[in-house]
From TrEMBL:
GO molecular function: ATP binding; serine-tRNA ligase activity
UniProt keywords, alphabetically: Aminoacyl-tRNA synthetase, ATP-binding, Ligase, Nucleotide-binding, Protein biosynthesis
Protein name: serine--tRNA ligase
Source organism of this protein record: Rhododendron griersonianum
EC category: ligase
Binding residues annotated for ATP, in chain numbering: 240-242, 256-259, 329-332
Lineage: Eukaryota, Viridiplantae, Streptophyta, Embryophyta, Tracheophyta
Annotated EC: 6.1.1.11
Length: 421
């Protein structure tokens, strides 16, 4: 279908250009006739007809080009040679992951009868999901007391961690114009992830990740080689409909519609291996962050079929959740090469007159922490019988607190204890 649109668009463009040439030719002939004092009415009539035809052909060309552009936007980035080739992350026939485990770190906690993060949040009283749902609907929540402090501790530790590694902190806008969002997000995300904000002026969309406004920060810029690489530590609240995740992790604060995030975002030269070296540096940063939190993890290379359109290669860092005896995603780290920068016209070098000579910077993104999800992982790994320890690196950000005791008892457990008495 799109090949036919390409053919129609090309044919229409040829006819449009031919009409313009005919008009120019007729205009010259009319001028010559008038100079000679001869009647030019027939040629003028022919010129008017050609102008009408030209206007019609111009509309046809614009429509064909718009249709073609929308189809071209569905074509993803070129996949790097090192990416595992498979349509699915999990091989259902063999019940094994097709994603390739690159490395693992830490001593996994494996004990019977550990409490999961949903139970621990309730026991500690650090979030109120019932009142949150009453006010905001499903998956709404209020963070309370030490939950607020722990969340802020992760944000502040994350920003401090990245600033010490040469990153510039940016707090991003929480919504974006539709035309700019369309250059940063896939079309499917508009239906499955993004909330539309309608009001005065044009519609806008709430961001699903800090990556989106960070991606557009250098919109239409020329980046001189001497400025690169650029490293940004983005901080934002994020908003996701999670339309495709019904029934998955709906309890607690693990998968919610609103959450906070600290994001790595880097721009590099398109030349040599600079962006691939940066990709490795960024995943190593995320690994070091979770090592400092003492969270066991594994790094996996994501298969080709599970990559989003922009990513040429992606790593996930999965943290260990001992209560469910499994690894779960905490970090997504992607090299998008020049896929997004071409749409956003973020160019490399100095302004050039020759359009063919243009180069585009490479854009890379990586989660450092989606704080509510990281909190869940900390709770499960640091739990004790009487409460939860605070990771050592977060204590200074929590006023020196080292331990969160259990002040609350879940309703079912309380009833059980009462009946035994």
């Amino acid at each position: 279908m799109w090949m036919m649109q390409l053919h129609i668009g090309g044919l229409g463009l040829f006819e449009f250009e031919q009409c313009r040439k005919d008009i120019n030719k007729i205009t010259k002939e009319v001028g010559n006739l008038r100079i000679a004092g001869k009647d030019a009415s027939e040629l003028i009539k022919s010129s008017d007809e050609k102008k009408q035809l030209t206007a019609e052909k111009e509309i046809e060309v614009q429509e064909a080009q718009a249709a073609l552009s929308s189809k071209l936007e569905l074509i993803g980035n070129l996949v790097h040679d090192s990416v595992p080739i498979s349509n699915d992350e999990v091989c259902m026939t063999l019940y094994m992951a097709n994603n390739v485990i690159i490395r693992a770190w830490g001593q996994k906690r494996v004990e019977p009868k550990l409490k999961n993060h949903v139970e621990l949040v309730e026991l500690l009283g650090i979030a109120d999901t019932k009142k949150g749902a009453n006010v905001a609907g499903g998956r709404g929540f209020y963070l309370k007391g030490d939950g607020v402090r722990l969340n802020q501790a992760l944000i502040n530790f994350g920003l401090d961690f990245l600033e010490k590694r040469g990153y510039t902190s940016l707090q991003t806008p929480f919504f974006m114009r539709k035309d700019i969002m369309a250059k940063c997000a896939q079309l499917a995300q508009f239906d499955e992830e993004l909330y539309k904000v309608t009001g005065e002026g044009e519609d806008k969309y709430l961001i699903a990740t800090a990556e989106q406004p960070l991606c557009a920060y250098h919109l239409d810029d020329w980046i001189h080689p001497s400025q690169l690489p650029l490293r940004y530590a983005g901080y934002s609240s994020c908003f996701r409909k999670e339309a495709g995740s019904h029934g998955r992790d709906t309890l607690g604060i693990f998968r919610v519609h609103q959450f906070e995030k600290v994001e790595q975002f880097c721009l590099t030269s398109p030349n040599g291996n600079e962006s691939w070296d940066m990709h490795e540096e960024m995943i190593k940063n995320s690994e070091e962050f979770y090592k400092m939190l003492n969270i066991p993890y594994q790094v996996v290379a994501i298969v080709s079929g599970a990559l989003n359109d922009a990513a040429a290669k992606k790593y996930d860092l999965e943290g260990w959740y001992p209560a469910s005896n499994t690894y779960r995603e905490l970090v997504s780290c992607s090299n998008c090469t020049d896929y997004q920068s071409r749409r956003l016209e973020i160019r490399f070098g100095q302004k050039k007159s020759n359009e063919q000579a243009k180069q585009y910077v490479h854009l890379l993104n990586s989660t450092l922490t989606a704080t509510e999800r990281t909190m869940c992982c900390i709770l499960e790994n640091y739990q004790r019988e009487d409460g939860v320890e605070i990771p050592e690196v977060l204590r200074d950000f929590m006023g020196g607190k080292t331990f969160l005791p259990f002040p609350n008892t879940p309703e079912k457990e309380a009833k059980g204890k009462k009946s035994k008495a």
